[in-house]
Fold each of these.
Amino acid sequence: MTLGELISAVRDEVRDPSALRFSDATITRYLNDGLLELARVSRCINVWQSSVAAGTTSVAMPPDLLFLRMAAWESQVSKHGLDIKYGMPRTQPNETGEPEAVWVVSGQIVLEPVPSSSGTLYLAGVPRPAKMVNTTDTPALEDADSAIIAYAAMRCLLADGDPMAGAQKQAWQELRDAWLVADAQRNPMQTVLERRPWWW
């Protein structure tokens, strides 16, 4: 379905065909939020790679990477997976060697320790779905239409204080769970994440 069709479907769900209570912009925001909610739990994995010069302390997080699941380092010296940590690294910036971990800090990937030789940083994770903006846009996630319609309708009803919001929340959860099953079938993953990255 196109964004225009999705908006109409949400209006049908919340009984607002004439846009008296909810603007197209509000419904569009809720639909895009629904896509993000699905993407956060998706098993779809992409791999990003960055060339890193010796002495580089950090690289920018790819803007289309929503959630980081694995990281790895490859140089002429070694080739191995990296631990993923959050917060501020404990080591000093002048400590160098082969990276053993990455820290996710405010949109940056900080290497620990600082690489003493050039190499390639690999990041594997869930891609951020593109936002729908134009009425002809379609959802970036496959078979997500019903689930995001239910999500947007739930958000509308909650904002309106409608007593049907609870029933709509249940509908969203059931459709989300059904989507997750289909997503898992489309994107099978190993159950144990080894230190050796799966793409090697």
Amino acid sequence: MKKIMVVFGTRPEAIKLAPIILELKKRSNIDTTICVTAQHRQMLDQVLGLFNLKPEIDLDIMQPQQTLPQLTSRVLTGMDQILAEHKPDTIVIQGDTTTVMATAMAAFYRQIQVGHVEAGLRSGNLNSPFPEEMNRRVATIFSSLHFAPTVAARDALINEGVESGKVFLTGNPVIDALNLIIDQPCPETARKLLERAGLTESGSNKKLILVTAHRRENFGARFRSICEGLKSVVTKNSNVVIIYPVHLNPNVQGPVHDILGGVDRVILTEPLTYDVLAHLMKAAYMVLTDSGGIQEEAPSLGKPVLVMRTETERPEGVRAGTAKLVGPVAENILRETEKLLFHPDQYLKMSRAINPYGDGKAASRIADALESGKITDGDFCGGDC
């Protein structure tokens, strides 16, 4: 029996790995162990409960105000002990967190095979996103199996010298996870927020904009500019309502509540569970974000995405027309949002674009590759069929 250990530490990792774990657990010849570092304790636990996942191993390394070097050292030393004890055949990691980078390094030191989900994403700038761009490049070096979500990600890996036979084009499992959640009834929390936004009334002309923003490289003046742009959108457009789940980081909480607190038709909430966020996205007119995963999820629901960053490691959405880079610039945020509010042709062009990120079958492809080294149903075409 093949021993596979799936390691993650944050909510986005858990969301994207959950469908893979569920698929692996169906296979009788695979012994699947879940190990969490709990890099983000509270937000991680929400997802574990949502998908009914119970970790066999929990490092619980989260500490208040820990630095990146402290976090890295705790994950590295903690995972080294776990790998020495459990001796898995393969480690599966996802994305670009500190957990991913340090776990890949620990596995390399123990000469354990690493499978990297969402491999090959590149922004081209080591400082943006920081430190994620470095993390994912390091993970590539230590990985033996590379699960690329898109054609561009696959090509980036091959252009960097990764052997093509070790790269699997799978699509992104976040689409699998989103499909699982959207098929469920709307959660009570989401329903109450939509009522508060005035979106459940018959004939309501309100347009909901869902906002997520917490990127480290935007902290400071850039983040204040984002908030000023959001404030302008609602003050200049009386039919717009913003729902913004605010990240717990003080660098986010401060400017958001200073600039947007008390503004009419801006609903600030605590971080929401994934199922609530997904159903709000389904109800939204559009999404404004500096996050990563939501750039992949929103197009599956036909929602245009304005990306409040200067670059993105997910350029496929921009090329396909589902997303547009507007930067962390107040004037751009207002201008591009109003284009989508006032010009139906531009809105329809973005909302109807083909999603290049997945078809909901990524988990089975990744499980196939982990089990047998090949994908039985064929690669994901990524919109290039």
